[in-house]
């Protein structure tokens, strides 16, 4: 079943070219079902690219989804037209009394800053707290994962000696968890970050469950409240060319950047990327939607306020 998206969103035409079926709000209104209500807080600089990445994955589900995009009101993006933000994004104050079945909070290019020095820290933590009581299940991605773990559980982040940049092999700590239904014993995930969270800090918090990690890139997925929060340090949503674009951008700036590890064929940028994470990315989002959103959210959406741990 396709996503119910606001008409004229650029991602619609981009994904139709990939034979991914999405529908606009007019057609969706003709279907007599309650769609899942989803919201994405998009903190990434390239908003349209990030929208397309997540829509691509969310659309690979038999569930109809009504998707909203949320922005930080105190921050003006530099890489997205203001007209796009005004047409397709909501301010938090307009949804503060609403409830959502699922939420995704993206990474942000502020990881080397102290959390409290980020100019939207107060607003983003207000949104974290709101999601805690107004959303059935939330995915925190990359910087948002680190920020959420710090905000709710006091888990610190650590600066890495070099950027964690590439595609890394991961293993399952609990293969029976429904989030991993259909996963192989080993799977790959792209990473692009300058900081990390550490296993020992996660294990010191009884409310947290370490679900997956990598011998190269460390902690990958942490669960809280039985699946009402997932904290994910990598970027399973990345399209095949994203790391290449990041690498070429940094090279053009004259930055001292290493070739992303395990990404290009034979580690040679001229040979292009070897894509080996999309299958598990689709499983991850489909499993999350099915087992932790659709099967747990109440039909009367305002009853989310009465949910305990899943």
Characteristic terms for this protein:
310 residues, alpha/beta, Rossmann fold, 2 domains, twelve-stranded mixed sheet, 10 helices, 12 strands, globular, homoserine O-succinyltransferase activity, Class_I_gatase-like, homoserine O-acetyltransferase activity
Mind explaining what this structure looks like?
With 310 residues, the chain is of the alpha/beta class. The chain has two domains: 3-162 and 170-239 and 277-300, Rossmann fold; 241-274, no CATH class. It is built from ten helices and twelve strands. Strands 1, 2, 3, 4, 5, 6, 7, 8, 9, 10, 11 and 12 form a twelve-stranded mixed sheet that branches. The longest helix is centred in the last third of the chain and has 17 residues, at 278-294. It starts with a strand and ends in a 16-residue tail after the last helix. Residues 25-32 have low confidence and may be disordered. Pfam families: HTS (PF04204). Keywords: Acyltransferase, Amino-acid biosynthesis, Cytoplasm, Methionine biosynthesis, Transferase. One of its GO terms (biological process) is L-methionine biosynthetic process from homoserine via O-succinyl-L-homoserine and cystathionine. It is an enzyme of class 2 (transferase). The record marks 192 as: Important for substrate specificity.
Q: Mean pLDDT score, rounded?
A: 89
**Proportion of residues in helical segments:** 25-40%
Work out the radius of gyration: 19 Å
Beta-strand residue percentage: 25-35%
- The overall strand count is 12
Helix-strand pattern: EHEHEHEHEHEHEHEEHEEEHH
Distance between the termini: 25 Å
Number of helices: 10
CATH topology of the largest domain: Rossmann fold
* Count of the separate structural domains: 2
Q: What's the architecture of the largest domain, going by CATH?
A: 3-Layer(aba) Sandwich
Shape: globular
Q: What's the main sheet like?
A: 12 strands, mixed
CATH superfamily annotation of the largest domain: Class I glutamine amidotransferase (GATase) domain
Low-confidence stretches: 25-32
The level 1 CATH classification of the largest domain is Alpha Beta
Class computed from helices, strands and strand pairing: alpha/beta
Active site: 142 (acyl-thioester intermediate), 235 (proton acceptor), 237
EC number: 2.3.1.31
Binding site for substrate: 163, 192, 249
Catalytic activity: L-homoserine + acetyl-CoA = O-acetyl-L-homoserine + CoA
